[in-house]
Amino acid sequence: MTEIAMTTKQRKPNKFAMAISFLMALPLAAVLLIHPGAMLDANGHYNHSALMMVMIGISGGFIHGVGFLPQFWLWKWLFSPYVAWPLMLWGYYTWFFS
């Protein structure tokens, strides 16, 4: 049984992309934990659906950044950098321009 698990091909992780993911997620997570008021909109309210999506992006950035590879296809897709990076960029846009 262990031979089957050992013979699956795994591709090498891209260390540069992992570093980008981790370094993009770190400041956003720090801002949300230390000063969440920086994410308010022009009216002084939180956009909860947008913040939820940004937090999914932060989670994906940390998951990809530390090198964890989910097995289930939905988690693999949701926490991939293809989804996490645009969501984190949306978070940076919200942080700096709103």
Description:
The chain has 98 residues and is mainly alpha-helical. It has a domain of 50 residues. It has five helices and no strands. The relative contact order is 0.18. The model has no long low-confidence stretch (mean pLDDT 88).
Quick take:
Keywords: Membrane, Transmembrane, Transmembrane helix. By secondary structure, this protein is mostly helical.
Tell the overall outline.
elongated
User: Could you tell me how far the N terminus lies from the C terminus, measured between alpha carbons in angstroms?
Assistant: 54 Å
Question: What kind of assembly state do the chains in view correspond to?
Answer: single chain
Helix fraction, binned, reads 55-70%
InterPro entries: Cyd_oper_YbgE
Organism: Acinetobacter guillouiae NIPH 991
Keywords: Membrane, Transmembrane, Transmembrane helix
Protein name: Cyd operon protein YbgE
Blueprint of the fold:
Blueprint lengths: L1 H5 L8 H20 L13 H18 L7 H6 L2 H17 L1
Helix pairs in contact: 2-3, 2-5, 3-5
List keywords for this structure.
98 residues; mainly alpha; 67% helix
